[in-house]
Amino acid sequence: METRVMTQNTQTDMSAASLLRRAALARRQNRLPEEAAALQAALRAAPQDVDVHFAIANALFARGRHPAALAQFRRVIAIAPEFVQAQHNLAILLKKQGKTAAAAAVLNRVVRLNPTLGGSQLALGDARLTQADHVGAQAALERAALLLPAESRVWLLLGFLAKRRDDPDRAASCFDRASKLARMDSVARLGLCMARLPSLYDQSEDIELARRQYAADLESLVASVRLDDPAAVQEAANAIGSFQPYYLAYQERCDRPLQELYGRFVAGVMAARYPAWANRPPMPPRSPGEPLRVGVASGFFRWHTIWKLMIRGWMDGLDPARIQLYGYHTAAIRDDCTEQARSRFHRFADGLSFDAMAAAIRADDLHALIYPEIGMDPMTSKLAALRLAPVQCVSWGHPDTTGLPTIDCVLSSDLMEPEGADEHYSERLIRLPGLGIAYPPLVVDSEATDFAAFGVRPSSIAYLCCQYVSKYLPQHDDLFPRIALHVPDSQFLFINPRADGVAARLRKRLDAAFARHGLDAARHVVILPYLRPGQYVALNRRANVYLDSVGWSGGNTTLEAVAEGLPVVTLPGALMRGRHSGAILTQAGVTETIAADLDDYVALAIRLGNDPVWRATVSVRIQEGCRHIHEDTRPLRALEDALEWLAEGEVQIGVAGTCQRL
C-alpha cells in the first residue's frame, strides 16, 4: 500500500502537515488512538487537503475497516482524479475484497497515468493472473521486472507463468532469482523444485535429467528449513500446497524414495507449525450399532474425475448403518455435485480457511478420514500432512505413494496392482476387490458436434488418444506411425489441454515420429480443442478404437469409453497407474485387446482398425460386460469391512483382494 505525508497543495496549512507526520509516527509505534486523534485534528485544520483524506483512507484500510476505507479512497480520487497512489491503494483494497476485475480496471488507469510505477505494474500483473489473463499478466510483470528488479514477488509470479506454459528453464531461473532475493521464501524454493518436473518432455533423455535436478533441489529445500526456527516454519507451512510434485508420477518410475523425502519434509513442517494437530488422536469409542464416522476431504466435490471415480460411488453406495459420511470441500468451485454432496453427507463443511477446516475435522471426532487423492488440491495436501483422525487413508485419485508418514493406508484395486506392489508405497496397501471403487453409469447427454470442422475425416478410422498430454512420453511416439503404416486412412485424435504451447510441442514431436516412418503427420494427427462433457460423449461415439496411453493408462476416460462400447487397446505397465485400463477390461470380461508387449499393442490396434467385424464383436462384448463394472458392490462392502477393522485393530489383505482381520 502506498503512503505519503507531503502535501500536494502548497497552500495547505502547515499544521496539517505536522499533524500528518505525528499520525504517521504514532502508527509506526502502534499508538492507534494517537494516530486517530492526529488525523482528526489534521482534518479540522485542512478539511479539503487531499493528503489528509488519503492518510485517513490508509488508516481505515490498515485497521480492517474496508467499506469505510473504500469510500474514503473514492473521496480522495474525486478531489484529485490523477492521484495515482490513492488509485493504487484503492485497487489493492478491491482485490483484497475479491473484486479482482474492478481492481485490474483501476490499475490499468494507474499505469496509463504513470507507467513507471513498478508496484502498480506488479499489482496489475498479480490481478491479471488471478483473472487467468496470462498474456496480460506476463506483459505487466515483465514491465515490473524492469522497474523493480530486486522485488522477489515479481520473479515468483514470472516463474509461475513460465511453469504454467511449461518452460522449465525459464521457470527455474525465475524461482531461483526469487529465492535469492527473499531467502526465507519457501514458495519460491518449492517452485524451483517443481519447475524441474515439466508437463511434457521433448525427448526421453530429459526425464532422467529432470529427475536428478528435482532430487537435488528437493534435498536443498529440506536442508534450508530449520524446524526449530518459528519464522522459517511459518514461512514453509504457508508455502505447502502452493506447488506440488504432481508431474513426478508421469515419468514412468517408482517414486517412493523421492516421495518419502518430500512427505517427511512436509509432515515435519506442518507438525512444527501445528503441534496440536501433529499427533494421532485416540480412536473414539463406539456404542453397539453406532456407525463409523468417516470423513472425505477433497477439493473435488464437483464435476471432476475424482467426483466421478470415487466420491459419488461412496456417497451413494456405502451403507449408512455402518458408515456415517462427513464431507470437507476444500476448494472454492461449487456446482450441482457440491449440492448433492451437501444434501447426502451427514455433515458437510465448505468455504473454510485452512485453520478452520482442520479444526472442524478434528472437532468431528472421526474414526477415519479418507482423501480421494493427495497431490492435486492445495488445501488437502496440507491437511493430509497433519493427524486429524486416528486412521487416515488415500484412494487412487492421484495414483502414486504420498510419502507422508501421516497417511496409514492406500485404498487401491486388486485388479490394478502388480505383484510386489507393496514396495511401491510408504503406506500400507489395501487391495480392494475389482476396481477398488463403485462406479455407477454416468448420465451425460451427447451434444451434436461437427468433428469434420476440427479436421476429422468422416471416412477415417479414428483412434482416440484422449489422455492428458503428460501421459504421452516421447519413447512411445513411434507407436502411432507404426499403426498408421498399416491403416492408411487412420487419424489419431488428441485433445488440447487448454495450453496451446504444450499442444504445439506435442505436435512437433509427433511430426518427427511420423517423418521417421515416411509419413505426413498432418494427414494422421488431429489435436482437438478442449471439449464440453456432451461433446466428449459424442467423441467416444465417433471414435472407432480407444488407444490407451502407455506407462500411465486411462482411468475415468476408459470407463467412459467402454460405456459407449469403444474397443480399448492397452498395455499394462509395471506400476498400478499403468494398469487401470487392463483392470477395467478384465472386470468387463474382455481381455483379448490387452497387449503383451509393444509389438502386440501395435498389432491389436491395426487389426481393430482393419477388421470391422472383429471391432463390432469386441464393441458388443464390452457393452455387455459393463454391467460387471457398474453393478459391482464388492469394493464398497470390502471398504466398510476394512474401515471397521482399521478402527478396531489391524488389517491384513487376503487372497483376491479381500480384507481379513489379523
Automatic annotation (TrEMBL):
<comment type="pathway">
    <text>Protein modification; protein glycosylation.</text>
</comment>
<keyword id="KW-0808">Transferase</keyword>
<keyword id="KW-0802">TPR repeat</keyword>
<dbReference type="InterPro" id="IPR011990">
    <property type="entry name" value="TPR-like_helical_dom_sf"/>
</dbReference>
<dbReference type="InterPro" id="IPR051939">
    <property type="entry name" value="Glycosyltr_41/O-GlcNAc_trsf"/>
</dbReference>
<dbReference type="GO" id="GO:0097363">
    <property type="term" value="F:protein O-acetylglucosaminyltransferase activity"/>
</dbReference>
<dbReference type="Pfam" id="PF13844">
    <property type="entry name" value="Glyco_transf_41"/>
</dbReference>
<comment type="similarity">
    <text>Belongs to the glycosyltransferase 41 family. O-GlcNAc transferase subfamily.</text>
</comment>
<feature type="domain" description="O-GlcNAc transferase C-terminal">
    <location>
        <begin position="474"/>
        <end position="623"/>
    </location>
</feature>
<feature type="repeat" description="TPR">
    <location>
        <begin position="50"/>
        <end position="83"/>
    </location>
</feature>
<keyword id="KW-0677">Repeat</keyword>
<dbReference type="Pfam" id="PF13414">
    <property type="entry name" value="TPR_11"/>
</dbReference>
<protein>
    <recommendedName>
        <fullName>protein O-GlcNAc transferase</fullName>
        <ecNumber>2.4.1.255</ecNumber>
    </recommendedName>
</protein>
<dbReference type="InterPro" id="IPR029489">
    <property type="entry name" value="OGT/SEC/SPY_C"/>
</dbReference>
<keyword id="KW-0328">Glycosyltransferase</keyword>
<dbReference type="InterPro" id="IPR019734">
    <property type="entry name" value="TPR_rpt"/>
</dbReference>
